[in-house]
Every structure is written in structure tokens, then in C-alpha cells.
User: Fold these one by one.
Assistant:
Number 1:
Amino acid sequence: METNSLLLILILISSLIPGILILLFEEEQAFLRSFLNLFGAFAKVTLVGWVFVGYQQGENYTFIYGLAPDLTFALRIDQLGLLFAALSSVLWLVTTLYAIGYLKGGKHQRRFFAFFSLCVTASTGIALSGNVITFFVFYEFLTLSTYPLVVHRGDDKAVEAGRTYLWYTIGGGTVLFLGVVALFVLAGPIYFGQTEIIAGLASEKSLQLTVIFFLMLSGLAVKAAIFPLHGWLPISMVAPAPVSALLHAVAVVKAGAFGIARLVYDVYGISTAEELKLLTPLAIFAGFTIIYGSVKAYYQEDFKKLLAYSTVSQLSYIALGVAITGLLSTTGAVVHLVHQGIMKITMFFAAGNVAETYGYYRISQLNGLGRRMPLTMGAFTIAAFGMIGLPPIAGFVSKWYLGLGAVEAGSYWVVLVLLASSALNAAYFLPIVYRAWFCEAEQNDVHQKHAGPFEAKALLLIPVVLTGMFSLAAGLFAGSSYSPLSIAREIAEKLYPYLP
Amino acid sequence: MIWMLAIILPLLAALLTSRYPAGRRNAGPIFVFASLPAIGLGLVEVSGITLDWFILGTHFSLDTPRRIILLLTGILWASSGLFSGSYLKDDKRRGTFNFYFGAAMAGNFGLLIAADAAAFYTFFALMTFASYGLVIHSQTPAARKAAKMYLVMAIIGELFIISALFLAVQSAGSTLFVDISPALANAANGPFIFLLGLIGFGVKVGAIPLYFWLPLAHPAAPVPASAVLSGAMIKAGLVGWMHLAPVGLVAWPSLGLMMVSLGFMSALGAVIIGLLQVDPKTNLAYSSISQMGLMTAFLGLGLYEGIPTSLLLPAIALYAFNHGTAKALLFLGTALPTRVGGYWRILMWLGLGLAVLAIVGGPLTGGLWTKYLLKTFLGKTNLPGIDVFAYLLTLSAITTTLLLSRFLHLLRQIEPPKESKAPPFILPWVFLLLAGGWWTMSPTLLPEGLMNQILGEKGMMAFFWNPLTIWSALWPIILTAGALVVVFTLKSTFLNQWIKEKPLIPPGDFLYVILWTGNLFEKQIQKGIAFMQSFVESRHSAEKIIYKFIDNKKTIQISTQAEALLRRWEVVGISFIIFFLALFFLI
């Protein structure tokens, strides 16, 4: 096998092997487990970085394994996939640190870390898959490997949440499967980027293609938490903080959003999707979800629930950006894939820190917390301002491109949706910021669970500071040539070759 | 490098003076040092730079009007910073204050030197949100209320600004402001975009009807923060308008008329409400609204045809310079009467009097000069009703005299200390007195060519020492002062009864109209909210509706657990079907 193909496999097994090995270990072998996990995470980041540099230098990375005639397992690198792979591997590393600190001394760590690694394998697989079939396989793999994490606590609430989670995701998987099979029957195997196949069929088989698109979209919309298929996400917040952070802010939900981007950009192609008028319904649903999620978030009293509904809202920014055609909105959609991830993971880390250190779970308990946890709440404040879309934080860059793209496409209602969402984001995030920094804590309420040199356990503090800094840097240095923005811009430029 | 320093130094200062005790002790000098690059950029012309990597590609450069305002801003932050260093020495939250003070300073400098929309918006937001911390500083219920009002209005403003920028940048195809205003002139929806900007920045300027947060927020902040809020930060909105306004390129008479009439409405109306105030700082805040109204009106003139661009904007900037320094001096001055005793009081009254004269436009002051500059435009336009405009300008001089006499009167009622002494923060106050724009220094800020265009060959001194000019500046003041003296001597009881404890109209006047209207409809609104909440607060409202639907059809026979499961399952299934089918309907 060539080195380049081997690299792709290595990226996958850098988390698969630790996952399997951890299952073989004893529960007590904490050090070995942590070491293996961190080693895998570091290896994955390094490998993705290596491939990234190679790809920029014009190397080609493909791995194809024929399962049956026309049915192949294909891994291939392109920029969109690479961006998603980089996002999930870097955030996996950070979250692994966090999880080690968070779960220290807890039960069932073996199960947790094993499935955690499998999840990351699945999401990297989704990023690297080169055709629809491979994508589907990893997509389902992700569904199954997440379930044990959702029910990790094992109480009634968690089991109930797990059940709901399965109903939604298995349902979504089934619908997606229908779509994938129908597509296969109609058009044969489609590798991502071969948009000419569908384009050739568009005029004759427009009805079939429309049905297939909507089937696949319905399947993907579950993970992307588009209304009314978002119900599983807020309930799954019973999972431990690292799970909520990585899976429900990044890996799982992004798999849906990323899938929608793939479907539109690399399977149907923008021009075909536009010709068949498939994007307007998506835009309307996404726009509605943005407002709906924000309104729901506004009424939440539980910190993590609030963040969950905010995720519902923010994810649809990506779908909305995909649904509006144009260089700018595509850039906005792709860059928000990254930006939303780093901002939201910061918020979940912060919420987890607060819960771990002081046992606070409700918004009303956060009074005066800024003084006691300046770094945590500082990072949270940065991320919250970013979510509102205030510069110079990452979220502003996304909003700027989405807004400009909407104006460019003449969809002024989208601008109104963005503005309304910004206002709502301000309405539910600023009270938290206000409580943390400008209210005095009631003294009798303070009992710190943790004692140490820092405001929280170091392993919980480092990740939140890191991702908070990422969120700031991604906006502050958005113009530099290695920022998520410039990569997103390159991706968008390739999708619109006819533009200067 | 100096461009970046103008932003980085204030940010560093914010960190130093908040985190470290040594920094906190020396906050005054540190803030002065941090504003030096900005003052330097205001005095010396430096060629602009482009930083591609910063935000969305940033361009820093200055033109004449912005340079004048930057100089003003630099001087104000330096003197207010020095002032705050000793004024807040015993404040237990001074570290927090310093943090927000430095951050707002960075934002204020940054937005002035930014020449592209994204960076401008960035620094504007930084300034706006950092000054929230200044407004709420005292954490009294009044300050909290003011800060809340401030924040709500600021966010509304931000939303209008960002939508204006979206449209403007898209129609210009560039983020540079030099491209944006010509593009607005040519775009079909140019007036609409400008209107959005007018509203967005109007919040900061305190334009009618968006001003009501201002008389609450500006006085709520500690004295040095009020000075920069009312002297420097309020001008940021004006700068935003200047960026968008295609002065001299268009004829938008209806927008122009709107700005002019709204401008004069606030110029005259704010005075009336301001007169009824009992707090000197609130009185000054209304005076700021009134003065910004005049600037609004003059910028509005620029939307008519035939206005020379190169003159109007620098003239407005000079007016802002004069007003900003004088207003900051008055704001800082409100801290003096309780602390300054003996002969020092003479200096105090002299300085305050000078500042009042400068705002009113008294002889030999920058106020007169800048008013004259603006009046020259009236001569150069041949708009109908321009005479009315000139009369209104004179009338505003009279009303402003009234308002600021009331301010001095309010200060006079404050009990002076027994012994002759002066607090250390009188030093920065004197510094500001010397550096202020009421001296005839302000014309020197203008480029040579402009001077000649306005004054002709005779030059500045001939203008200032001309008896005619002196007389035309003096008579409104003499008239008002005379009238006041007459009223005082004849019927002092009337003035003494003049609402001593509570203002006749509460600060934030218009806000109460809104709240009152809200109260009228309170019941209906509450009903509406209750309905919304009952709808939204359920865990999954959409699902709940479906539940109800199902419950009606099904008899409950199966065990609760299985039923819950079934419900779930059906809910999920129905959601899928709804989603899938709806997609077709929406095509």
C-alpha cells in the first residue's frame, strides 16, 4: 500500500485502536488508559496536520477498497473533509484532557473512554469518506457508538434520554438509508465531487432526484437538529459534560451539518440543487430553526439546556449558509462549521467547570462567579459574545459572511433572521454574563467542592482557556492565511469556479 | 507600528491597572501614557497601513475630520484617565473600573483610526460593551437601571449598524469606507442604507427619538467616565454617520430635511427638559443631546446639493472638538465644588465659565469660531428656508446659555468646604482647561488651504478681533444673562421653588412615555406573554401538540411505560413525515 493511503488508515485507527484496547484493560488501569488516549489524540492531530500540509503541497490522498462490484469503501481527502477532520481531531485532544480531569474517580471510565474513542473514529471517518456509501457507514457507526455515552450515568433519566436519542437517530438512519439506496439504484456509486452524474440526470429524473434529496436531507437533519427533528438534543444533555461538549457541540451534530454540506456541494452540486429548487425548503426550515432554538433557549433555566437549545439554533446557521447559494454564504457556512464548534465547546467546558467546582447547574446560581472563576467565565464571555456575533470573535466572521451572502443572493429575510437571532442570543447570553460579572454572590451559597491552586482542576481549566483563545484568535486573525476563514474561502472558491 | 500601539497600549493599560496593585496605584499616569500614540496620530500626519491578517483585513488611516476628533479623543482620555487615577483612589472597585476604562479607550481610538467597515464595527462594539462596565460601576439600583437601558439600546443600535454595513459593503464591493459612501450615492437603495446607519449610530449620538438612555447612563457613570462618554464616545456615532454620508455627492433632500429638523428638535427640545433637572450631570447630559442635535442638523445639510464636502466634515469635526473638550471639562468640574475651597474656587469658576462660554459660542472662543465655520455653509447654499435655519441657530445659542446657566446655578448651591484646599485631581482638570478647544487654537487644526477658503486673506486674528463678530457673539449671551438677572431680582421665589428635590420631568423623559404607554397595554401584553410562555415553556411544544392530537384518538390501555415509548416512537415518526412532506410543500 502506498504511504498516502496508509496515512488515511492511520488517522482512523489512531482512535480506533485505543478504543478497542481500552475495552480490554481493567477499570483500575487509569494511567495506561489516559496515556493511550492522549497518545492516540496526539497521533491523530499530528497525522491530520501532516496530511494537511501534504494536501496543500498538491499530494493526493485516496484509499479505495472494493467490497463488491460498484460497492467500495473509499477514503479521500479534500479540503472540506480535511477541515472537519482537523476540527474533530484537535477538539478531541482538548476534550480528552478535559474528560480525564472530569471523570477522575468516576465509575465506568473504561466504557466511557472506549466509546469516546470510537465516536471520534466515526466522526473522522465521516470527514474522510470519499463516497456516499462510506459516509453512511460511518454515520451509523457514530449513532451507535454515541448511545453508551448518552446513557453513561445509568439512571432513569439517562436511559429515557438514550431511548429518545435512539428513536430519533435510528429513524434518521433508516430514512437516510432509503435515500442512499435509491440514489445508488438511480445513479450508481457516487464519489464526492462527481456532481456531473446527478447533473446529467437532472432533466429526466427530476422527481426521483427530488424525493431522494429530501429523504437524505431528512436523515441528516436529525443530527443537524433541524426543527422538528431536534428533540433528542436537549434531552441528551443528561450526558456528562465532556460528552455534551464534544459530541453535542461538535462531532455528532456537525456530522449532520457536514453531511448536508456534502449532499448539496459534492453529490448534487450547487447548480443542480438550484435547478431542482431543492434549497429553498432547506433555507426556510433552517431559518425557522434558528429563531425557534433561540426562543426556546431564552426560556431555559438549566445552564446546559440553554446551551443545547442555543446549539440547535446555531447549527442551522450552517444549513442556512448551505441553502443560500453564493461565494460568500458558502464561505460563511463552511467557516461556521469550525467557529460554532470552538465557541460552543468552550461554553460546555465552562458549564462543566462550574458544575464540577461549585455544583451549580442553574443560571440563577451564577451570581458573582466571574470574580471566583475569572478564566472560566472569561472564556465563556468570549464565546457568548461570539455567539451573539460581536467582533472580533469567531462568530462575527461567520455572521458577517452569512449576512453579506444573504444580501448578495437577494434573500433579505435571511438578514432579518440573523439579526433576530443575534438579538435573542444577546437576550439569553448577556444575563449570564451580567450575573457572573456584575452581581454579588450570596455568601451562604458558596461551597467550593474543589480546593487547589487554580479556580478549578487544572485539567478542566486548560481546555476551556485553550478553546476560548481559539475562539478569539479565529476572529482576530481571520484575515491571515492559516485561519479557518481562509480555508473556507478556498473551499468556496473551488465550488464556484466560474467566478473570478 | 504607531497605529497598532494606539490600540495595544490602552489594552495593556487595562490589564496593568486592573490586575496589579502597582498598576492600580499608578493608573493615572499609565492611562496618560496609553493615550499618547493616539494624541500623536492626531497631531502628526502618518501614512496609513494595511494589515491583511487582522480581523477581515484591516486598514488604518486618517482623514482631516477624523484626525481632529482623534486628537479630541486622545486629550479627553488622557485627562480623564489622570483624573480617575486620583478621583477613584478610595473606590474598592477601581480595578474593575480601570479594566473597562482601558478597554473602552482602546475601542474608541480603534474606531477612529479604522478605515474599513469590519474593523470599525469591531472597535465600536468593544467601546460600547466596555463602557457598559463604566455605566454600571456604582452598582446602585439607579446605575443598574441606566445600564440596562444602555445595553438594550446599544444592542438595538448594533443590529441596525450591522445591517447597514451588510448592505453597504455588498453594494460597494469593498469594506473600505472611501468606497462605501460613493457607492451609497449611486445605489438605488442608498437612502435606505443610510437611514439604517442613521438609526444605528443615532443611538450613540442621542438623536431623537433614540436618546432616552443617554440622560440616565451618562450621569450614572463615575465622573471621569461621564466625561469621556459625553465628550468623546458620543462622537463615535457622529463619525459613523460621517463614514456613511455621501456628503456632496447626492441630493437626498427628504433625508436631509429629516436630519435638520430632528437635529433642531433635539437642539431646542433637550434644553427645555434639561432646565428642569436637579442633578448637574443630568443637566449636562441634556446639553450634550442638544449640542449633538446641532451637529446632526449640519450633517443633514450635507445631503442637499452643492455642499462642499472638504469643508463641511472638518467644520463639524471642529465643532465636535470644541464641544467635546468643553463638555468634558464641565463633567469633570462637577466633582470639584465639594472639594475645592478658598482661592482655588476662583480658578474653578473661571474654568467652568470659560467652558460654558465656549459651548455657547462666546467671543474669542473656539465655540464662536466653529459656529462661524458652520454658518458660512448657510451662506453658500441657496436652499429655501435657510434664513429660518440661521435664526434657529441664534435661538439655540440663547437656549444653551439658559441651560448652562442653570448648570452653574446648580453647582453654586453645593456647599463648599471650609478650608482652602484643592484635591489632586484638579491638575488634570487644569490640563484639560489648557488643552481645550475653546482657545483660539482650534483653527490651527485645519489644513492651510481650508483656512484661506473660509477666512480669505485676512486671517484668523482679524476675524476674532473684529467688533462685529464679537458683538454678534455677545448679544445672545448678554440678552439671556440680562433676562436671568431680571428674573432673579424681581421674583426669586419662582426660581427657588423650581423643583429642588425632584426634577419636574424625570431624566430619560421619553422612556416614561414608552413605559406609560406600555402600562396602558400592560394587561393585554401580559396576557400575550402568558400565552406565549404556556406555549413555549413546555419541553417540546411541537411534540406536545402532537401528543394532544394522539391522546384524543387513542384510548389508554397499554402500560404507561410502553405507552410513553410508543408515543415517543410515533412522535419521532410523525416528525419525520411532517419534515419530509413539508419540504415538498415549500419548493
Number 2:
Amino acid sequence: MAVVDTDNILEEEHHHHEPFIAHHFDDAEQQFDSGKLGIWLFLVTEILFFSGLFVAYTLYRIHHPEIFEQAHHFLDKRLGALNTIVLLFSSLTMALGVHAAQNGDNKKCGLYVLITMVCAAMFLGVKAIEYSHKWDLGIFVRSEFSYHPHTAEPFHVSPYLIKLSVIPVLLLVGFIAASFFARASSKVALSKFMGGLAITVGGYFVGVLIGMTFMALTAENEHAQLESPSQAPLVLRALTLDDDKHDDGHADADGDAHADGDHSHADGEDHAHGDSHAKSPDLGRDVGIFFSIYYCMTGLHAIHIIAGIVALAWIYWRCLVVHWRPDYFGPVDYVGLYWHLVDLIWIYLFPLLYLID
Amino acid sequence: MADHSHSHDDHPPFNHPAPIPLLIGVFLALVFLTILTLVTSDIELAQFAFPIAMVIATAKAALVCAFFMHMFWDKSFNVLFFLSSLLFVTLFIGMTLLDTGQYQDDIDSFPREPEATPVVAEQ
């Protein structure tokens, strides 16, 4: 048993110098490589997870190319491009954060990780503007789809946006209060952590403001397009016709929502005079399916952004309590890899959904 | 960055920080490619628009993978692992596509029939 004792003594000493190496690993390098293999495995499952949605997208696009050619009239590519840049910038700050952690610079790493979290929240803020604008126009998933075009005045606050912002407002108040409370009880790191989270949630509201400004700047264009229906794309014209008849139908068949829904399609069919309108009864359905795909893809991506913020918050906390050193920075690297994957998926989603000719 | 060069000495072998100018250069290249893809989407390119957008997206993805995700310095086993997932995605999409034409007529004809009935009833 003497040998075992020696091992134990060595191991204890080992633990003393390397506080973060789990006992089942030989050394820091083995632990790092195992973690890295693990995170790559996870990223592979993530890609396969998303690929189901990409299959849905591909199939629908191959069978209904006309819907995709017209769908970009509903999506603001400038907002999409803005979000792309925000996400790319957050990827840069994440890479810089990993760099700082690799050099054992916890302070810098914390700053970069905080910027990454703020960018992530900004992305969600712009997304909230996009979603609430669509919901205002009745652009929902296929089963709820009821497009009714109208133009809102600049800086109009959608009721949907208010609903989406309830949780961020509560979080902001909670984090600010927690930060002050922690400072009062002289827990410096906790106070900074809560302050950082409050700044992160603040990023959401910055994103909302930026998105609103963008919408206000582009509102004139949109207005002009809707004013002259003959200039509007086929899909808008068809849906507008559908919508007008929908209102008429409402007066007749009040009470029965289902029959009403059928009615709109049927009347659209009546209106399908001329070859260019031949597809109009299906356009409502098909554009609805496009938006089902759109909401699934961007919604799942947004859930990943939220999960990323939570993981980054954990990294931020460990920066504040000075855990990272040149031989122990694995978790920063792993969360960074996850964050870059979220960016990677957006890199494909942006041209696939927003940049369709 | 004085402490940066100094701390290089105590870096264990598995720790290769990417050079900061490279990271910033990659970011600028990504922004450039984003603007490029926006510009090309405004030009009428007919059937080339989609391949061009995908080539640009793939170039961006490659930059992110190689430098932000440290694949350039990573163990080739990890890289192989990750890239193999793309093979399976291709298989997934390809094999599904082989079969979809089969039922397309049924799908196209399906929702119209129940929706056509009330019209007849009302007219």
C-alpha cells in the first residue's frame, strides 16, 4: 500500500498547484483536449439539429421557388445585414476574449466577454423589432397567417414589442437592484457580475432603438410601395386582394372563424383573373409556410443566442473571480466555439432568408 | 502588449493564442464579404444569384472556422470530426430530395378541395 500512499500524496500536491484539474485527468493538456473533443462533438450534434430545418427550407424552396422570390419583400435586408455585422463583431470580441484568457489576462477577458454578451442582446433587440413589425402586419406562422398591410408611423411601439420586452425590463430592474444590494453587502465580484448582466440587458434596448431607427428610415419606401398596388410585388397584390375579400366575408359569415378562413381563399380564387394571378389562392398558404420556416429557423437561432448569453455569463463570472490562466482557459475556448457556431449558422441564414432575388 | 510577449514563455504546448492583427483582419474580411453579398443581391444575376450568395457565405464560414474557431491550429482529428458532420448534412438533404417529387402532386392538391366546397355552397 506504500505505493498508493505516495500516489495520494503526489496527487494532493498536484491539486494544490492545479486547482482546476479534475482528478481523472493526468494533466492540464489531457483535460483541455478531452474538453475540446467534447465541445466539437456537441457542435456536430448542433449542426445536425439545425440541418433538419435546412432540409425543410431546401425542399420548400425547390418546390415553390416563386414564393421565395417574393418573400424578401417582407424581410428587411438592411436589418438583417445590421444583425450580421453585430454578430460578426461579437465573434471578434469572443475570439479576443479567448486570446486574453490564453494569456491569463482575466480583466481583459471579462471586458471582451461582456462586449460579446451586449452584442448578443443587441441582436435580440433588433430581432424583437423585426418580429413585432411582422406580427403587426399579421405575418405569423402558417396556421395564424392573416396578412393585412398598413403602415405604422415612425417609432410606433407595437403591442407585441411591449410584450416581448416585459422579461428584459424585469431582468434589467432585477440585475440593477441585485448589483446595488451586492455592493451594499460588499460583495465586489457579485456586484460587478450583476452590473455586467444589467449592461447586457441594456444592450437589448439599444438593439430595439437601433431597429426602430432603421424602421423609421425605411418607412417611407414601404409606404410608397403599398400606396401603389400596381407597383407592389405579385405576392403583396394577391394577399391584399385576399384580405379585402376577407373583410367582406367577415360581414356575412360572422361567428364562424373556420368558415371565414376558407372563405378568404375561395374569394381569392374568384379574383384570380389573368394568368399572373393564377396562383393567388395559394399564395396566402404558401407565404404562410415560408414564414413558418422563417420563424422556426430564426427562432431556434434566437434560442441559441439566449443560451449563449447564459454560457457567456458563466465565463464572465469566472473572469471576475480570476480563474483563467495560461494552462487553464478551456471553458472560455469551448463557450467561444459554441458562440462562433451560432454566428456560423447566422452566416447561412442571412443569405438564405433575406437575400433572395 | 508588453505583458503579452512576456507571458508567451509560460504557455503550455496546447495553448496557441491567435495573433490579434489576424483576428481583426478576419473580422474586416467578414464585414467586406457581408457588404459584397448585399451588393450582389441587388444586381440581377438570375440563376447565378443563389450560388454566388452561397459561395460568399461558405467563404465567411471558412474564415470563422479557420481562425476564430482555431481550426487552423487545432488537432486534425477535431477538424475531421467537424467536417464529417457536413458530409452527413449533405447526405440528409440529398437523400431527402431524391424522394420528394413522389408525393408533390398529393400535397399540391390537398388543401384546395376542402376550401373549394364552401364557394359552391354559397354561390
Number 3:
Amino acid sequence: MRKDGLHDPKSPAIKQLQEPREALSRLPPDTTGNMVRWVQALETGVIQPRPSLKPGVEAEILDRDILLDLKGSMPIILFPHKRHTQWLACANCHDGVFEKQTGATKMSMFQILAGEQCGICHGAVSFPLTECFRCHSVVRPGQVKPAIPPGLPRSHNLPGPP
Amino acid sequence: MKLAGALFAAVIMALVAVPAAAEYADVVLNKRSEKEGVRPVVFPHWFHRIRFQCRVCHHELGFKMRVGANDVTMNEISEGKFCGACHNGDIAWGADRCDLCHSGKPGLPTGIFGGHETGGPGRW
């Protein structure tokens, strides 16, 4: 943290704040971003982030998969509402970032790469946009999934996959 | 030979000196901090998501999902809004512990930093 380029090495906080590795190395490992499979961490109960500051309020989960970009050339996008609503409120996306009606919002990788739409989170706090096939996951009939290596070499010295 | 030696040393240095990186989703907030005489805030997003689902801050507390889009003052935090919902000396350290949040290097711009794959578009 002292050398991370963000914290002031002279700050008294350096000795008190938690090092990322200490927190993240205990979570399911990934090959990119925080090197953490956040959804898996949540679903397996390794982490139990609170759904609300108010007592008794539960997360509103929507278990509905959406297929997007049916006519494109990349594998079809399968958007799992469940994994997103396990973290987010409906109002974080609807309506505003995305219309509720499937297909009503024109989406593009240009916008996503510029930090709009899915790119508001993906590339900033959730898995980055290098992981094409985590979203473009449904291979079209007769299509061969292009081979792109997942993620870049580990740099956090986190434990590898089992 | 001398030149080759120097080149070799330079290459080795470049390979060995791995730059220590900010953690993916470290957020620097410096809209007001330095103007008001304190260090910029380093907000570890990854630390907070271990404890709270996105909806807590980005829905209940009203933080917009765009770095720099939130105009948060210390007065509001002291009144229990935004960070102050937890940073009140009860759930988490209180607003009197200035240095713990305001721990950034002077001169840093507001933005999301960190990660070996975040060298892309700068809008975040």
C-alpha cells in the first residue's frame, strides 16, 4: 500500500488500513480484476455482504436470463439477472441505463468500452472487458468459439485455481 | 562492451522492478479534498463490497455509479449521509479520523485506479 502509487507513504493510515492481499487472497481466485470470483464468493457464502442498512430488508432477486444480440457475429450474450440482482438494486439499471423491455436499449461495445452501459461496472469494479466470453457465452449453431486466453498472468501472487 | 553492459543492466532493472499497483477498483476522490487542505481520499471499493452489496451505497445511500459524480461534503457525512451512514464511530470509524480516508498522495486526480487490466478508457 505504501508503494501502490495512490497512498501517501507519509500518511499515518498506511499502518492501519488493510492490505488488499490480506482480504482478497482468502476469496475464490480469478485470473483478472481483483483476481476474485466475486459471484462465487457470494454464492458460496465466503462473503456475506449486507443487502441493506435497515434491519429485515432482504435483497430482491430476479432469476431471469436474457439473451442479447441474437443477430451478431460474436457468441450470443447471456445476461443473468440473478447474479446481478444478488448485488444490485433494479433501479441501478432500470430505467435509465437500460430500458426494462429486452431489445429496447441500443447497446454497443463502443459505449461499453467508454464506460457506459455494462461498462459502468465492468472494467471498473466488476470483471473487466478483456473477458469477452464471460458475457458472449452462447455459441451460435455452427460457430466455433474463438480462442482467447482468459485474463493475463497473475500478478497478485494469489493462490491458483484448484 | 560498456554500452552492452549498461543495456543489459537496464533490461534487468526493467524486468525486476515490477511497479507496485493500486488494487483493482481503488477509487481516488479529490474534488474538494486538496482544495480544502487535506489529502485526497482513497476509497477501496473492493473492501466495501465484501461487506455490503452494491445496492446499499448505490441505492439506499444515493451514491451515483460514476466516480466524481457525487458531491459529498464533510458536513453531510457528519449528518449521517453518504459515508456517514456507517462512518459514524459506531459501525465504522467516525469522521474525526480524517487521515484514515484522506490517505492519498497529493496531486492525484479523481478516478478509478488499479489493476493490471484497467489501462483502458479513462472515463471511469
Number 4:
Amino acid sequence: MKVVRGVTAGERLELNYQLVAEALQRFIHEELSDRGYQQAIVSVSGGVDSAVTLALAARALGPENVHALSLPHKDSSADSRKHAELVAKRFGVTLETIDITAMVEGYARLTPQITARRKGNVMARARMIVSFDKSEQYHALPLGTGNKTERLFGYFTWHADDAPPINPLGDLYKTQVWGLAEFLDVPPEIIRKAPTADLEPGQTDEDDLGVRYRRADVILEHYLKGYPDEYIVNLGFTAEEVTLVKRRVNRTHYKRHLPAVALLSSTAINEFYLRPLDFKLAD
Amino acid sequence: MRHALLQLKPEKGNVERNLARLLSRLLELREENIDVAVAPEAYLTGYFLQGGVRELAMEARQLEERLLEWHTQHYQRPLDLIVGFYERDGGDYYNSAAYFELGGRGLLHLHRKIFLPTYGVFDEERFLGRGHGLASFDSRFGRAAILICEDFWHSVTATIAALQGAQIIYVPSASPARDFTGATPGNVGRWATLTQAISGEHGLYVALASLAGSEAGKMMSGGSLLSGPEGEILARAEAFGEVALIADVDFERIPPVRYDNPLLADLKAGLPLIFPELRQIVEEL
């Protein structure tokens, strides 16, 4: 007798990246238009997230309507600068370089005890200041480049990387950003290099996080969908990995929300008085 | 009977502009000799309003007045129009769709959404009341029913409409795209499966008009379509973009299809046999 085997149902991280790219291009175009903008700003770090964001913006708006910013500090790696130039060239976008060393070191001189971590956060916030100022200069909106994994882990500088008003990658795990990068023809050396925030010399994300992205993403997807720990462990993960991932998510919810406001009335904003962020009333 | 399923992107909160755009689209399509046009769920305001429903809902009669005035001045030829909107009735608010016979009887039928999704990204019941009726009605072409979005995801509602004699079910919807693993967003595929299954089971037409446009990142998927009495897709709009989907409906097709595949007749014969179980289930809810 002929034997026909079925497939087992399960969660899938692999996406149709052409469909994803088309949807995100439409998202960028419409969300900018709805706010009265035709141009975007992308801070290009040399990493895969900003490379993908730049590619999507160039496809959505035309390269001439995208301003790529390279914002190096003297301690930034040479690879970061080189890769920022490479992606801007690949996607036909003019790259403007503004060295943030003077901004960061000006503050650092006032605070001699500053640690490398604190200085890294100052760098991220200096980049945010520049990109919002360039927004005003060019009448262009900054696009966020944060992916879902780092958002869930709270692995970003608060009120810096998460500040841009429009974020196309925020619902894609790092694994999925890599898949989208392949589809968009991001240079392979950028896709294959170890992800790094490049805020401290020699830093890599996976060393900081203590787990590989490709493993963390599968754990996250199952955890967010409510699977119990034992189920996730049975997929081939250690109990320690599952605990670490859950801990990172549950220690950082505050970073994914607006600040806590003391609720005193029945018209408290975003508690009782609820309007979506795109709500408008015609005059 | 020519239909236009209008897959449109509204401007959030701008009722006047959205209404004007709908009417100008209808004028652009005048040479198509449209008999029935369908605009999506919550088209006049956009779908996600949260508490803004209270500021933007309108009475069905208000909308009727506006449409009749426009029709008399600009369109004249008879036109049936179905519009999804947030409705205010005294102090109550509903997610509604109204059927207007313009150049005829005016507001012919009003359906208030019964199944209000309040889970995941959806939060309808927090801001809206449930409709409590599901009635088919006679248009100038035949017997019709309206179901709004999740109303149609429960096959029992379409079954009731079919038992009431509906030859066509109009489905204004607003469906944020999600699940990007396949050739189209997962919800677009699900809609196609549902409309084909319902059409094929009951031998009737289903006309789906689905909202387009990004609402603060929630990308309304479009994918409007018309399915026929054999469960076939007769017209299908692409996902996401604005589309006027033009397709013809022929009620004369229904009797021969139902004769070959008399599932609806079988249901009428068999339903009394299983009704005691159904009644018991409902009584225990």
C-alpha cells in the first residue's frame, strides 16, 4: 500500500520575504504620507538591521528620497564605517557622515568617571539627537531599525534606538531580518558578520545576551504564543536557555511602553482616554 | 447585475473626505453601469478608532440624507450602495453596514455586527454594542443578506442567511494582514477559503469588500473577492492596494447549481432532526 505522510503542524519563522518586503515598503510609504512626509532618514550603522531598513526605504520612496546618515565615534570599528558606505552605495542612497566624537567626548570630559557602558549609551543618544535634527533640516522622518528580538530583550538604548516614529522591522525576529536581507540583496559580508551594537570595542550582541539569535528567536516565538517551558525544552533547547530568554523579556516590559503616569481620574490618557496614534479629527 | 466591490483606503477620522472620495469613485465608474456597489467595513472613518467611535459615529438616516442628496444631484441612475460605518443610535454605538437603494426606496436594510472581535489586536466590544439581528431582505434584484467581517467567520450565520433565502451575502470587512509565511497574507487566504466554502455549500454568491491602507502599522489586507454558487472565485482583488473590483452576478445560475448539488434542500430536511441537540446546546449557554 502506498504510504503518504502528513506534516506536523508547528510554529514557523520562515517567511515569504518578497511578500514581507512589499508589505513593509507599502507601510513606509503610507505611514510617511499620512504624516505629510515623502522623505526618510536612516541612520546606517553598518549592521544588517539598518541595511535592510535602508533597502526597504529606497524601494518604497526612491533612493533620492532617503537620507542615509553614518554617525561614527572615534571608537567605532573600521568595519562599521566601511559597511555603512557599502550599503549606501548598494542601494543608491547618498551617505552623509557626521562624526559624533566631539558631542560624546564633550560630555565625557565633564564626567571623568564615565564607564564604557554609559558612554555607549551617550553615543546612541547622540545619534538620536542628530537624526531628529536632520529630520527637521530635510523635512524627512527618521525610520527605526530595531528588530523584534532586541525589542523583546530590551537590548537597546532607551529613548535612542526606539525613538523614531516609524519602525518597519519591529515585528521581525533577527532570524527573519537575516532572511529579508538575503532577499533584498544586502551585501553578504554584512549579513554574515557577528551582530554588534558597536558601543564598546569588541562587543557582540550574542556575547552580551548569552544566547544565539537563531535559538533565542524560536524560544521567543513559542513563549509569546503561550507554549509551556517543557514543550520548548522538548524542541531541543536547554532549560537554562528558556529561563534566560524569559527573564530578559520580563525584566524589560517598561522599555516597550510610555512612562508610568499616576492615574488620578477617569480621563487618564491611554488608560481611560483611548485613541490610536493615527487618530485625527478633521477641522 | 453588475457589482463593484470597492477596496478603498480611508483617511483616518475624515468622514467628509472619505464620503467624497467614495462618491467620486462611483462617478468615475459610471460608464461601467454598476447596479450594486459595496464599500468596506468602517470605510467612512477607518477601522481602529478606540474611543474615537463616540466622536465619529453617525446615524444611518444622516448618511441616507447625504447619499440621496448626492444621488439626486450627480448620479440620477438607480444605484444600490452598501457602506460600512460606525453607527450612532441615541446613546448606542454599533459597527454597521447599511444597504441604500438610491433612486428607489432609500435605506433598505441596516445590519449591526453581531460578532465583535475583542482579542489580540481587536478591541471592538470595549467600544461598541453587539447587533442582535440577522435578517435577509429583498433588494430590487433578489434576496440578500449582510454580514460584517467576523460575522462571516462563523459559518452558522451564513447558513441562517441561506435558510432565509439569501442569494447573495454582502460582507464588508476590515482585516489587518498577518501571517506572511505563504503566497498571500494568511488572513487573505482564509477569506478566500471561507467565501468559497460558504458559496459552494449553499449555492449562493458572496461579495467581500475589504478595507485597504495602513492604520498605524496595521496593514489592512484588502483581497476583496466575489465567489459564485459553485464555490468558484469569479473575481479577486490583489492584497493591500486600492481596487475597484467589477464583476457580474447572475441569480439565474443559482437554481441549476442547487438542483445538481441540493445541499441547502438537504439541510432544510435534516435540520429538524438535529435541532433538539442545537436547542439544548443554546439553552445551556
